[in-house]
Design goal:
Layout: H1 7-16, H2 18-25, H3 32-53, H4 56-67, H5 73-82, H6 85-114, H7 125-135, H8 138-151, H9 168-171, H10 181-186, H11 189-205, H12 210-233
Helix pairs in contact: 1-2, 2-11, 3-6, 3-7, 3-8, 6-7, 7-11, 8-11, 11-12
């Protein structure tokens, strides 16, 4: 597989044959530019397309109803004036770009620190920064599913959740007015796929036990979700 692998096939291989692909990527750190581009497109395109197909007046009123129902009519009107389609489209490009760079920077820093337990580990922060784009490749699958839902929508009254069809909020029809909506929106099926890719990639890149690799892969998300759930419960 290694002799046939290239940046494009690696993007597919990391999803279909992660063990063999990460083995090759250990010596091909400069290939992560393509994973970066694809993950960024996956983060931006569904949101961008959403604001092109949604009935924006309906979207605006749904936001007012879910987030500003307890304020005065004048405050609601001020909120309406701030909700602008052009501004929304621009925000869908800038915000995901900044958020993804921030997320990957944090993941890379976390992996750079936690993998120091392997004395043979010579990977730098930059290496883990590239690694982080590879493990986020499942987001491309989620983006394709989102684009399909948006494309085949029969009218413009489409829930914003449609851009994250693998989120628990979408799967279990949790409304934006629910206190659990934010947490449910953050738990996506591809996140578990990403955890598996981190686990698999770590075993190929450094000398770790399976147990330690699993702990490194799953700990951050589960701690965040647990604390979030406890706050909502108490």
């Amino acid at each position: 597989m290694g002799t046939q692998l290239n940046p494009l096939s690696a993007c597919i291989g990391v999803l279909t044959q992660p063990k063999a692909t990460f083995f090759v990527l250990k010596k091909q750190h400069n290939w992560s530019w393509l994973a970066f581009l694809l993950v960024m497109v996956a983060a931006i395109l569904p949101m961008y397309y959403y604001f092109h197909v949604v009935d924006f007046q309906w979207y605006k009123e749904s936001i007012i109803a879910s987030q500003f129902s307890n304020v005065s009519p004048s405050e609601q009107q001020n909120a309406r004036s701030l909700l602008d389609a052009t501004r929304g489209i621009i925000g869908t490009v800038i915000t995901p770009f900044i958020m993804m760079l921030t997320l990957v920077s944090i993941i890379a820093g976390y992996l750079n620190i936690t993998t120091k337990i392997d004395p043979q580990n010579i990977n730098s922060y930059g290496d883990w920064f590239g690694f982080s784009w590879w493990v986020l490749m499942p987001s491309c699958v989620g983006a394709l599913l989102s684009l399909g839902i948006l494309f085949f929508a029969t009218n413009g009254q489409i829930s914003f959740d449609a851009i994250s069809p693998s989120a628990l909020s979408f799967i279990f029809f949790i409304p934006p007015t629910s206190a659990w909506f934010g947490l449910a929106s953050s738990i996506k099926l591809e996140t578990f796929w990403t955890m598996y890719l981190i686990y698999t990639g770590l075993l190929q890149w450094i000398e770790l036990s399976r147990q330690r690799a699993a702990i490194i892969a799953i700990t951050p998300c589960f701690i965040i979700w647990l604390i979030w759930a406890l706050i909502l419960m108490f």
